[in-house]
Amino acid sequence: MKNIPFCDYKKLYLNHRENYLQIIDEVASNGGFIMQQAKKDFEKELSEFTGCNHAIGVGNCTDGLEIIWQSIGLRPGDEVICSSHTFIATASSIVMAGGVPKPVEIGDDNLICTEAISDAINSRTVGIMPTQLNGRICDMDKIINIANKHKLFVVEDAAQALGARYKGKHAGTFGIAGAISFYPAKVMGCFGDGGALVTNNYDIFNRSHQLHDQGRDVNGDLKSWGRNSRLDNIQAAILSYQLQKYPAVIQRRREIAAYYHNRLSQLNELKLPPPPLEDADNFDIFQNYEFMADNRDELKKYLEENGIKTLIQWNGKGIHQWESLGFTVKLPKVEDFFKKCIMIPIWDYLMDEEVSYIADKIISFYRK
Ligand SMILES: Cc1ncc(COP(=O)(O)O)c(C=O)c1O
């Protein structure tokens, strides 16, 4: 029997240990720990990679999202529409910046439903916040059209989608700004918390820069109130190294996703995500391989008994299901999704025999 963790955090470091030790040694020996060259270099590389004008390394993606909304300037009562199928950080960033999150239904792709966005717009609505979930981008043509029609800001939660593209455009670059996470379990993850915001808008860049560095602008002049949420230089240097290898990492995930699709699409009991090559407009980086499964809890138990760890995301609840946060709305599609969803391992360092073992065991569960 194999023992396959859902995510082997140790491998993130151990697979490139020598190189990382050298990187850490270089940054630390130079004494450039905070707001130094390694951070600037990474920001430049990230803006080039995503094809946007500005990138700012921040403490984590949640801070990045909050800083964006604060830069836009939410006023009390301002509403922002988001998917209920997302991490709590999407909604909390709106609240912490002074606004009100309005979670809505998902469509057949399990991403935010564009009709539900239109239905939720009222005189208090100021923005739409799509989450580019599991490495896949929402229908941005429709979302941008809706936003333009109603003069709303679009801020992308691109925490899970660095490198994902829709019609050639990168996640994070569709609206006024977007934020990306480098949490260790992300496709590109650093050795602790880390994130970035990306934008083509100079005013948002300027204000976000001040907000992330105690109110200081790029020249170090104090211009406003701010906080401390700066990506550490050591993390930035680690991420610069990873960014060079990133296309190959995405490629391996897409290979594994294609393999899972080929093997598992025979099972009517599963609703799988689209395979990598099906939609030429949507380049999915497969941050996660998540599907809906009949008898999900039994499948999870069976896989566990066979040495395969799986994950049910976010305590198995959509945003609107957290009554403790004051939500009262009912969203049946999201609720149904969370009764059936499961994620299986898809890390780039998985061996081929581990991937086939996982597929074998899922098939044998339904065929036994
Ligand atoms: C969809 C989504 N939004 C936001 C975040 C928050 O990212 P971070 O942990 O870097 O703050 C995450 C991280 O898990 C996420 O998956």
UniProtKB/TrEMBL annotation:
Keyword Nucleotide-binding: no
CDD domains the record matches: AHBA_syn
Catalytic residue positions: 186 (proton acceptor)
Gene Ontology MF annotations: pyridoxal phosphate binding; transaminase activity
This protein's record includes keyword Transferase: yes
SUPFAM superfamilies xref list: PLP-dependent transferases
Keywords: Aminotransferase, Pyridoxal phosphate, Transferase
A biological process term (GO) from this entry: polysaccharide biosynthetic process
Residue(s) carrying N6-(pyridoxal phosphate)lysine: 186
Similarity-based family: Belongs to the DegT/DnrJ/EryC1 family.
Name the record gives this protein: DegT/DnrJ/EryC1/StrS aminotransferase
